[in-house]
């Protein structure tokens, strides 16, 4: 069943081209529609970061070294996750025009949308690297361990794709999944070490980084980008397991519920 | 010689569950856990086999509500079938008034996206682009979002993409009703020139003349049942016979 989807997907030669085309248009739609254009994509994490910086550094006096960068990397990973999950719950509705007249594989719709988010993530990561290496006074500079970031990101991509598939296919039969997931993400946001000091987080919620895949991903991203050490391989393995687990469930739901999207939505 | 099939369907059927109170939310499902849902079953398609060879032009006739559209949707892979198995070789396009387009995109973007979905490579679309635009007569609005288009312009664009790009297997649902007379003539010409030869076409129409003119084989559907599938002449006769009886009955009443 799952292999059926993948076989079918790889069968046609213009599919990669199509994915890229759809991703480019999706990205353009999102950022070029408003006045600020691409600037908005870059501005948003900076503004988020400024808000949290004021609250946690200046008001609450959190003592994390290089706190601005600490926040920055946590936020861009988190934003990718939210954009790719909350942002795609209604994808089968908004992109209906792509599959209601032809036998196009629905998986392509998901991958292209996540690719568009990946482009945004790429810009944000570039901004982070510039900020961290040129402006951050407590920076440790560029390290070889930075090369691990694609692996961490691949993990994030798989996890987001899996959850996106689950949510949007449940949406076909239960429309209020949007609200439920909204509540759940705000819980998850506070259960992830985005703005807490890691030691505090670990003390309050022992082993929680193994339960919350986002926490693990953020911890590993900081290790490879800011601390110049290898990722925590146990944690990475755990998170890949989570990602693949959600992806498999997502595929099953796509087959069971998503195939009926044309008649139900 | 082995014949190549474009579509092979074995024992397909479709039942729609129509509920008055749609359980569309988690909340609704929780509150009505023990209340049996009053789903009405509508058997839209009774079990049938259906196959289409590559390059054939198949006609599909039947009175309103007999399951023609449902059958085309299942054969094109848009709806899943409830029973049986279906094999589709190639991209399909379900066309009643054109292809699927997004209102948020410009005409240019829609041309690229829709053609790509139909299986064309970007290079091929580049080559076809001018042809599609000129055929639709929309040269000066090419970078306008199609939500600002009139319905006629939208229909022309969608039709033009479908005509020029074309999928491997085309399902045409009453397509000869788009645009003004001049545009229709153009459409018919393209249809005859490029589709009848080379593409697999399933033609849904109420017009006997069109079916008779183009189709090698014709399927006649009645109340979700495949009554006859084969020789066009014979299918049309059956259809006419059935309809005559209805007319006579209504006259008696």
TrEMBL record, chain A:
Q: How does it sit in the membrane?
A: Multi-pass membrane protein
What is the protein's major site of localization? Answer: membrane
Residues that span the membrane, as ranges = 36-55, 67-89, 109-135, 147-173, 180-199, 233-254
Q: Where is the ABC transmembrane type-2 domain positioned along the sequence?
A: 36-257
Q: Does the keyword Mitochondrion apply?
A: no
Which PROSITE patterns does the annotation name?
ABC_TM2
Sorted keywords for this record are:
Cell inner membrane, Cell membrane, Membrane, Transmembrane, Transmembrane helix, Transport
Name the record gives this protein: Transport permease protein
Report the subcellular localization: Cell inner membrane; Cell membrane
Phylogenetic placement of the source organism:
Bacteria, Pseudomonadati, Bacteroidota, Cytophagia, Cytophagales
The keyword Membrane is annotated on this UniProt entry: yes
UniProtKB/TrEMBL annotation, chain B:
An example of a GO molecular function for this protein is: ATP binding
Q: Which SUPFAM superfamilies does its entry note? A: P-loop containing nucleoside triphosphate hydrolases
Domain (ABC transporter): give its ranges. 28-248
Tree of life domain: Bacteria
Which Pfam family, just one, is annotated for this protein? Answer: ABC_tran
Q: Which UniProt keywords apply?
A: ATP-binding, Nucleotide-binding, Transport
Q: Which PANTHER family match?
A: TEICHOIC ACIDS EXPORT ATP-BINDING PROTEIN TAGH
Q: What protein family is recorded? A: Belongs to the ABC transporter superfamily.
User: Under what name is this protein listed?
Assistant: ABC transporter ATP-binding protein
Tell me which species this is from. Chryseosolibacter indicus
């Amino acid at each position: 069943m799952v292999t059926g989807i993948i076989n079918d997907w790889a069968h046609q030669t213009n599919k990669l081209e199509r994915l890229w085309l759809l991703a480019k248009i999706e990205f353009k739609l999102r950022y070029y529609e408003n006045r600020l254009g691409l600037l908005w994509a870059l501005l948003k994490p900076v503004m988020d970061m400024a808000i949290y910086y004021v609250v946690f550094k200046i008001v609450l006096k959190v003592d994390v070294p290089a706190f601005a960068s600490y926040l920055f990397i946590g936020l861009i990973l988190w934003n990718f996750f939210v954009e790719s999950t909350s942002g795609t719950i209604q994808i089968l509705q908004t992109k209906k025009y792509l599959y209601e007249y032809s036998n196009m594989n629905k998986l392509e719709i998901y991958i292209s949308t996540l690719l568009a988010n990946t482009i945004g993530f790429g810009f944000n990561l570039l901004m982070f690297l510039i900020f961290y290496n040129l402006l951050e006074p407590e920076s440790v500079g560029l390290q070889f361990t930075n090369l691990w970031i694609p692996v961490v990101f691949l993990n994030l991509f798989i996890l987001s794709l899996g959850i996106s598939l689950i949510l949007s296919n449940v949406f076909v039969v239960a429309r209020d999944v949007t609200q439920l997931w909204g509540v759940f993400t705000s819980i998850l946001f506070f259960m992830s070490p985005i703005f807490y000091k890691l030691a505090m987080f670990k003390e309050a919620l022992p082993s929680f980084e193994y339960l919350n895949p986002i926490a693990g991903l953020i911890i590993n991203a900081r290790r490879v980008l800011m601390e110049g050490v290898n990722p925590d391989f146990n944690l990475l393995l755990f998170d890949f397991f989570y990602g693949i687990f959600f992806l498999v469930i997502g595929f099953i739901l796509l087959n069971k519920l998503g195939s009926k999207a044309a008649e139900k939505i | 010689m082995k014949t190549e099939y474009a579509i092979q369907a074995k024992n397909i059927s479709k039942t729609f569950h129509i509920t008055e109170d749609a359980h569309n939310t988690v909340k609704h499902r929780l509150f009505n856990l023990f209340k049996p849902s009053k789903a009405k079953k509508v058997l839209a398609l009774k079990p049938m086999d259906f196959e289409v060879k590559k390059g054939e032009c198949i006609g599909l006739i039947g009175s309103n509500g007999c399951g023609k559209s449902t059958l085309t949707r299942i054969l094109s892979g848009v709806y899943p079938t409830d029973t049986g198995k279906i094999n589709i070789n190639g991209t399909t396009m379900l066309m009643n008034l054109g292809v699927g387009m997004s209102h948020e995109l410009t005409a240019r973007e829609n041309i690229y996206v829709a053609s790509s979905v139909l299986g064309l490579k970007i290079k091929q679309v580049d080559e076809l682009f001018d042809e599609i635009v000129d055929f639709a007569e929309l040269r000066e609005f090419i970078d306008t979002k199609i939500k600002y288009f009139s319905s006629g312009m939208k229909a022309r664009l969608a039709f033009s993409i479908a005509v020029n790009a074309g999928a491997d297997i085309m399902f045409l649902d009453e397509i000869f009703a788009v645009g003004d007379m001049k545009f229709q003539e153009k459409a018919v010409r393209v249809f005859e020139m490029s589709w009848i030869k080379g593409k697999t076409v399933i033609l849904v129409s109420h017009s006997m003349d069109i079916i008779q003119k183009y189709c090698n084989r014709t399927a006649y559907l009645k109340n979700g049942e495949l009554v006859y599938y084969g020789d066009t002449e014979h299918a049309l006769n059956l259809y006419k016979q059935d309809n005559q009886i209805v007319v006579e009955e209504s006259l008696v009443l």
